[in-house]
Amino acid sequence: xxxxxxxxxxxxxxxxxxxxxxxxxxxxxxxxxxxxxxxxxxxxxxxxxxxxxxxxxxxxxxxxxxxxxxxxxxxxxxxxxxxxxxxxxxxxxxxxxxxxxxxxxxxxxxxxxxxxxxxxxxxxxxxxxxxxxxxxxxxxxxxxxxxxxxxxxxxxxxxxxxxxxxxxxxxxxxxxxxxxxxxxxxxxxxxxxxxxxxxxxxxxxxxxxxxxxxxxxxxxxxxxxxxxxxx
Length: 231
Prior knowledge:
By secondary structure, this protein is of the alpha/beta class. It has helices at 15-27, 38-45, 64-71, 88-96, 110-133, 162-173, 181-184, 192-208, and strands at residues 7-11, 31-35, 52-56, 79-83, 101-104, 136-139, 142-145, 150-153, 156-158, 218-221, 225-228.
């Protein structure tokens, strides 16, 4: 299956429904990974970046609502809640966590789930494109918000130190244009400050490059400094 297809994580303690959703979404062209509970989901999210989560609300241990609320503190990944509860107060509680949509088990056709997932993914893509076109620079799977000095990878925030954030800010403002070490230095001086820029660049490359030894985005321009190569 193509890597370009959206990758969905289905989290439900009901094996029958979990397997059913996994098979159906796979047949619709999605890549699907399943998890039995929130702990299993967290473990899988630690190694894989998903395009959308389908979370069961009622799970043993950490509930889907609690997991969604926790994720929203640091992630913009689209979330659809799936639950057996149909009361308005339950739907509101779920939506208040910041999830994107809510479906009640037993009252929807699988095709409806696919349509809602498609709509959520389209909104997420549109949001990403707006973010990229206004005050942000996109390179590969990364988006750097210039004014807010925030870096995201596939919608997930990437932690930057203050020095790394400042370095990326200076390069992003002049994306595609070589910037000298002196201009990148907080003091605008040669010597120790310039050497510190090299150290920070090495650390930053480890966070954004597949192979920091052969950088694709944060390139060295011999005799001129560094350049951020956007898409």
